[in-house]
Structures are given as C-alpha cells and as structure tokens.
Amino acid sequence: MSTIAPIIAIRLPAKGWQPPSAGERPASSLDDLTGADLIFVIGANPSSNHPRFIHMLKNCRERGGQVIIINPAKEPGLVKFAVPKSPRSMLQGGSEIASEYLQPRIGSDIALMKGLAKAVIKLGLEAEPFIASHSNGFADFRADIEALGWDEIEASSGISRAEIDHIARIYGAAENAVFAWGMGMTHHLHGVANVEAIANLALLRGMVGKRFAGLLPLRGHSNVQGIGTIGVKPVLAREVLAKMEAAFGVTFPAAKGMDTMACLEEAARGRIDCAIIMGGNLWGATPDQAFATQAMAAVGFKLFLTTTLNLGHVNGLGEGEALILPVTARDEEWQPTSQESMFNYVRLSDGGIKRVGNVRPESQILCDIGARILPNGPIDFAAFSQHRKVREAIAAIVPGMEQLGDIDVAKKEFHIRHRVLHTPAFGTPNGRANFVITPLPARTTGSLTLATIRSEGQFNTIIYEDADSYRGGARRDAVFLNRDDMAAFGVSDGQPITIRLGQRAHAGHRHHV
C-alpha cells in the first residue's frame, strides 16, 4: 500500500477525472470540420491543448451546429472559451462551446457508447442502407447491444437513460457528425476497445466514409502522429517490415521487442547495460519516481541526447556513467525537416536558426554512432545523415508517403494517401467496415478511481507554474471529487487528504483509491 502526501480536495461536479488530450489514424481532415453539424469531443480538453480544433468547435456552434462534450470533469474552457483567433469571441468574453456536456464515470466510456448505440437502434435511427452495403458484423453487434440492460449501462456510466436517449436523438438528427477523442480515451488498459466503441457508434449512422464526417483522434503534437505513420509503434505493419528488409538487405528479429515500460522493468532487474535516451524526461514521465530512480540507476551507461537539461539528467545516475550531448531543436536543424500535423498534413520545416556553440542534430550523432559500431554493415550511415536520404527511404517504404521524397524541392504539403476517408471504401479484404463487440470492463466497487491529468501550467514534464488558470486557480496537488463522493467520505472543500493506492498504476495512470 503506497501513500501520496496530503493533497487539497476541491469539489467539482463530476463523476471523476480523466487526462486531457491528445489520440490512431484520422479518417477526417481539418476541412471536414467546416461542414459538420455535430462534433463529439470525447476525453479531450482542446481549449487547453488543440487551439486550431477549438476554433472549429466555435465555428460549428456559430453556424447552428452542436458540440457534445464527453468528459468526467466539466472543463470551464469546454463550456465557454475566448478563442484568441476571433476578435468577437475575445470581446464578448468567450464563445459557447458545449451544447451538451456528459460526465461519465472514469473508465466507463464503453458503457456510454453502447448505451448511445442501444438508444439509436431503439429509436430506429440507424443507417440501414449504409450498414447493409458497407459493413460486416452488424447482426452480432446488435444482439450484444440488445442483451445489455439499461440498469447496467446506467450503473457503469453514471449517465441516466433519459440523458442517453436525448443525445441519441441529437445524433440521429445530424447530417454530418465527427467523433474526436483524446488520450483520455486511449490511456486505459482497454484503450483499443474504447476507440472501437466510438467507431461502432460512427458506423451505426454511416458517419465514416463521407465528407464532413468521420473519426478524428486528437494528438498532443506532431511527433506522436508522425512517428506512428513511419512505423515507430508497437506493431509494425508486415508490408512496411518487408519493404524495409528488401531495401536494406537485412532480416529483422521475429521475437517480440520491449516497449518503454518493459525496458524500465528490465533495467530495474539489472539487465540493461547501455541506454540511449533521446529527448524528453523519461525519469520524470514515469509515475513511480522511486521505481524510475532505481531502474535508471541500474543502467551502466546512459547517453542522453537533449535540447535542454532536466531533472532526468541528475536523478537515477547510480554508479554508472552518463553522457549528456546537446542537440538542435527543430527550428535549429541544419537541413530542412518534415512534420505531420494532427489533421494529416505533411509539411516541410526549414529550420535555419543558428545555435551558439557546437550543437549538432540528433541524426548526425546517431549516424556517427552507427557508422562506428557497424562500419561494414548494410546501412550507409553517412548517407543517412542527410535528411533528404531519410525522406526518400520513407517515401519508398511507407505506403501513402510517396510525395515525401521530393518535398524539399516541391515545397508542397500533402495529405497522406488513403488516410482521409470520403468514400465508404475501407482497408479490409472485402472493402467493408467491421462492427466490433466491445465487452464492458469490470466495475470497481467500494473505492474511487483516480485519473491523473496535466495542469495548464505544464508542458510535458516541465512545470511553469503551480496554479492552473483553466481550473479556477487550483494547485497542482489538488484532487477533484464529485460532491456526492466527498459527502460519502466526509471530505469538505479545501481539506487536506491522504490518498492511499490499492494497486500499482497501469496504462493511463489509473488507480483505485
């Protein structure tokens, strides 16, 4: 049983809490939002994290559309927000964002989505022609939905049937609906099923494979989107893997590798001799700092490539050696780089700002290391120190990225091929979309569920201020609780409390308290 130091409790009229933003490959583009008459925003806080998107939500409301927010916490910036790009919005003290605001229990999104699907079907609002012509598995999906009782849906989600029916009618009346979600949906042990439940709801009314509608995962920044596109993800597509092996004349290991958490666990067991840690603050981003210190201290040699110093460079050093090499940021790169936006645009970034001192790009350092370790290997590391060579390889290997090869010459941004779906042709063997049955996660009783968030005065692991301007000036050590839960536990506003964790954190930093 671990303990967190006393924290201030502040009442918030919500069922719980969930981390903001950020998202999977979009099936919609930025332009699709201009014609949507209904936008769902699920498990995200775009007023804080996605300025271009919040502008689109404002525009949707102003042209008579609706915005349905689904988030355990009532974020003030999702109710009303002064959009900086709009002088009228700023002068009027803000624009109305949410037309409806649902606050489900933390981790109960699948129950809510299945409840909405059940209501849509009960009201006869499903898109029968689309389902018949462009989908598989609807009969089994419908049977699963009909077998789920309203008592279970209400108990799991904390949302009443009347509220769910109301939202289902709004959805049923919409011509073009976009479903957008952030990491509040994906940072769960059942994150994949969460997204599948959203996709099911979109398919139910034919809101995928048409213009001004679709699925839109929200990203924190372009790195998250771009690295997934080019293959830096847990499971590499077989087609991409085969093309890489053919291009470089190599055979990659077939055994399963380790993700970040697995690497830390192996390090804690003393099984990692050397680690190259690029960017960020791995130590600070690991929720259990005692574990992070132990794991990193056990690594014999650590090479950090970083733009700025952080606490991760001085904690967990242990008795081994650590080398910190400064590297250029994107706008300081010696050569043009490319980036992918949240809305599927790939564009060129010229860089060109000169940094004081002998600071080199990460790619230069990595290629130098590669050339020294494998001087006679199959990869020409000297050639790959040129960014254009890297882009040419990506263009030849990753489907949909063909235009990247000469983007430094064309200087024209592009959408990734087959990413935006404006026709109901899906990437399955028979071209149909698949309904997926998503079981409800087990409900916890007798305890609360804790979800951690990033405060407004924070960027990644960098803390700029302790007060959160978007949450009423709440301190970073504040805990937000439902008023009924506070009454049940005998807790009052501003009272210091101690949180005891009943089990170790898993994906999404969710704890039973």
> What's the average pLDDT?
86
The dominant shape is globular
Give the full name of the CATH homologous superfamily of the largest domain.
Answer: Dimethylsulfoxide Reductase, domain 2
- What is the third-level CATH name, the topology of the largest domain? Dimethylsulfoxide Reductase, domain 2
**SS strand fraction:** 15-25%
Number of E strands? 24
Please give the domain count.
3
**Radius of gyration (Å):** 24 Å
Task: Describe what you observe in this structure.
Residues 28-292 form the Molybdopterin oxidoreductase domain. This is Molybdopterin-dependent oxidoreductase. InterPro entries: Asp_de-COase-like_dom_sf, Mopterin_OxRdtase, Prok_molybdopt-oxidoreductase. Keywords: Iron, Iron-sulfur, Metal-binding. The protein has 513 residues and is α/β, with parallel strands linked by helices. It has 21 helices and 24 strands. Helix 5 (109-122) crosses helix 9 (161-173).
